[in-house]
Specification:
The chain is α/β, with parallel strands linked by helices. The chain is built from eight helices and nine strands. The chain starts with 8 loop residues before the first strand and ends with a strand. Bound molecules: NADP nicotinamide-adenine-dinucleotide phosphate (NAP).
């Protein structure tokens, strides 16, 4: 039986596009009150307007760069001032940069962005919000992992390492919070067509399109469904992990392409 949001407050990082934006719509529709963060605030404002039109309640939107401690602290302060409590944190902000093999990398810069965003950013937002989430009495941390956190592939060493790290953090956090009123979930998707590949290939849309050529990828809404499922279970039910792939994908690099 699904348990609706009932005014629970959910923070979604990286809500300006893709999975984060779809999750915002799904959770708003289920009665959650939302705080949405990302660097592109104008996109957040547009999304908030759309949500306000359909639900009558405008989410809080605020600038958030998860790689910047002060930005995270300012964001959390705004959330506390606005709502006074936080029940759910969806750690969605994340990215891949390039598919360069280690032997061909010229410097560490792309690796550092992935580690700072996907690992340090996720840890930082969890650290800052976990007291509020525990105090809510009905908390939930949902991390966006990936099948890249379950199997590595050539050209993905660092992206995969960050997502293996997300899985380790998720599992450790669940153990650390045992006995406290907080659930901890990882959602691990395969190929989802969002801006993810455009970002990975530095804005090269044609190269991004090739990733999904001849196959049917998941949509951001498919993943939002998984997030919604996890956060609307009865309070005693902890969904540890959801691994979800397109029917056309059997693993990283194992893709059926139809002409
Ligand atoms: P997307 O369309 O590129 O969206 C990524 C979101 O993350 C954007 O809203 C972006 O917002 C935000 N973001 C990036 N860096 C940020 C930062 N430093 N601070 C705050 N927000 C930041 O990609 P997506 O597919 O929805 O990805 C969402 C999550 O799903 C990621 O963690 C990704 O690793 C994971 N995932 C994706 C796939 C896939 O195939 N698409 C598969 C498995 C897992 P701004 O640029 O406005 O800050």
């Amino acid at each position: 039986m699904a348990v609706q949001g009932n005014g629970r407050v959910a923070v979604i990082t990286g809500a300006s596009a893709g999975i984060g934006a779809a999750a915002a719509k799904a959770l708003a529709g289920a009665g959650f009150r939302l705080a949405l963060g990302a660097r592109r605030v104008e996109r957040l404002a547009g999304l908030a307007e759309e949500i306000a039109t359909t639900t009558g309640e405008r989410p809080l939107t605020a600038a958030l760069d998860v790689t910047d401690v002060q930005s995270c602290e300012r964001f959390v302060q705004r959330v506390r001032e606005t709502f006074g409590s936080v029940h759910v944190l969806v750690n969605n902000a994340g990215l891949a940069r390039g598919t360069t093999y280690i032997e061909d990398a010229k410097d560490d810069s792309e690796w550092q962005v992935m580690i700072d965003t996907n690992v340090s950013g996720l840890l930082r937002m969890t650290r800052l919000l976990i007291p509020d989430i525990i105090a809510s009495g009905n908390g939930h941390v949902v991390n966006l992992g990936s099948i890249a956190g379950r199997e590595a592939y050539a050209g993905g060493s660092v992206y995969c390492a960050t997502k293996f790290a997300v899985r380790a953090i998720t599992d450790a956090l669940r153990q650390e919070l045992l006995g406290k009123p907080v659930r901890v979930t990882t959602i691990d998707p395969g190929m989802v067509e969002t801006e993810f590949s455009v970002v990975r290939y530095h804005g090269d849309q044609a190269k991004a399109d090739q990733v999904y050529a001849g196959m049917t990828p998941l949509t951001a809404e498919d993943i939002a469904d998984c997030i919604l499922f996890a956060v609307t279970r009865p309070v005693h039910v902890n969904i540890d992990a959801i691994i979800v792939k397109p029917r056309d994908q059997a693993g990283a690099g194992k893709v059926a392409r139809h002409d």
